[in-house]
Amino acid sequence: MPFTVGQQFPTGVEFTHIPIQFNDLSLINPLKCDTTAKLNVDNLLQQLSTSDKPLLVVVSVPGAFTPTCTERHIPGYLSNLSKLTDKKVGAIIVLACNDAFVVNAWGKTLVKAYVKDVENLPQIYFASDGGFSGQFELAADRGGVFRNKRYATLVDSRDKTVKYFGVETESGVHVSGVENILDAKL
């Protein structure tokens, strides 16, 4: 069953990712393969809960390097990082069904294209879903390929509750875009 507003975000969630270094955007190389790491969401929520930016955004896409995901969905988030920071978003996790290396190369490509200022950014992770979305009916077989649905959720780390959840039911970005997160009532 998908998330609902007011529900606790699941515990014990881990994703695989490759950290992207944001301290110097000119050094980001999408073709450089680094070592994978585990992203423990419980630890991230705990860290955010004691900060002045306690909100976590989890945004999911059907696939890295796909048209809507690359041209419309995630660029909106990366182009509005200062507004997300103003809303008290401390971290963003971008999920795709691809492996961590593909997601990392895609993330680096998008960061180089859309992130212009590295001051006061939320933490940004591009992570491989690893089956998480499928556990909550947020992934489906799309022509022989199991892909995530396009969705976004906003979690308050202080009480670990979902404050916003939008899953797309048709093609495009209507309820999972950055505008929906920015307009979400807390």
TrEMBL record:
The active site is at 69 (cysteine sulfenic acid (-soh) intermediate). One of its GO terms (molecular function) is thioredoxin peroxidase activity. Keywords: Antioxidant, Oxidoreductase, Peroxidase, Redox-active center. The keyword Oxidoreductase applies. It holds the Pfam family Redoxin. This is Thioredoxin domain-containing protein. The keyword Oxidoreductase applies. InterPro entries: PRX5-like, Redoxin, Thioredoxin_domain. Residues 3-186 form the Thioredoxin domain. GO terms for cellular component: mitochondrion; peroxisome. One of its GO terms (biological process) is cell redox homeostasis. It comes from the Eukaryota.
